[in-house]
Amino acid sequence: MEAAKIIEIESDKHYIFKSERLGFRDWKDTDLGKLAEINADPEVMKFFPATQSREQTKIFIDRMSLQFKEKGFCYFAVDRLDTLEFTGFIGLSVQTFEADFNPCIDVGWRLKQSAWNKGFATEGAKKCLDYAFNHLKLKKINAMAPKANLPSINVMKKLGMKEVRTFDHPLLLNDARLRECILYETPGNLS
User: Fold this and answer.
1) pLDDT in tens, 111-158
2) What is the DSSP letter of 169?
3) How many degrees, rounded to 5, is the angle at CA 93 between CA 87 and CA 98?
4) Where are any strands of DSSP class E within the chain?
5) Which of 52, 88, 122, 165 stands 20 to 30 A from 110 (CA)?
């Protein structure tokens, strides 16, 4: 059997849904080391207060798996379909930090550097919004990023999300570079 056919058969087994180039799935134990490597990359974590340890990464994966079981969505583990290579995460998550717009559901992403500038974040987030509105029947999705995070803000704009306002993120108040964030919103169905 051709290698491409084997990859296709294997990939169909465990994806919740797929976009053109990405497969979205629940987390596996084998993802820990790969995501920990991404979370330890200072360039990937440039718009976060710090890199994350392996233990912090495990807590995140456990929280996402539990959220998926309870709500049917999370920041999904994402593989490239052409190689089945773990690339990072893209998905939906409940945000509960103290703010007048929370709790809300946001769309977010974190990809390894080799996956940057290829349109994966936009493609994946668009598919997650489609899943949110058409499968989960959610009414509104938010996204947020520090004002300094222009790459993520550009993705939000490409998604057709509208800027709602700026706010000081309560978990980033001690970080002058990241404190001021922008809240975006996508009401209704994008398709």
Assistant:
1) 999 999 999 999 999 999 999 999 999 999 999 999 999 999 999 999
2) -
3) 130
4) 17-18, 22-25, 75-80, 86-95, 104-111, 140-146, 162-168, 180-187
5) 165
CATH number of 3-187: 3.40.630.30
Is 82 strand, coil or helix?
A: coil
Q: Residue 31 burial by CB count (10 A; 0-12/13-18/19+): exposed, middle or buried? A: buried
Task: State how far the Cα of 31 lies from the Cα of 58, in Å rounded to an integer.
Answer: 9
Contacts of 20 (CB under 8 A, 6+ apart): 123
d(CA 48, CA 169): 12
Helix axes 150-158, 120-130, angle to 10 degrees: 50
| pTM of the predicted model as reported, rounded to 2 decimal places | 0.90
Token code pair at residue 64: 């996402």
Distance CA(22)–CA(78), nearest Å, equals 6
Q: Where are the beta strands (DSSP E) in 20-82?
A: 22-25, 75-80
Q: Cα separations (Å) of 139 from 68, 92, 128, 191?
A: 18, 13, 13, 13
Q: Are 26 and 16 in contact (CB under 8 A)?
A: yes
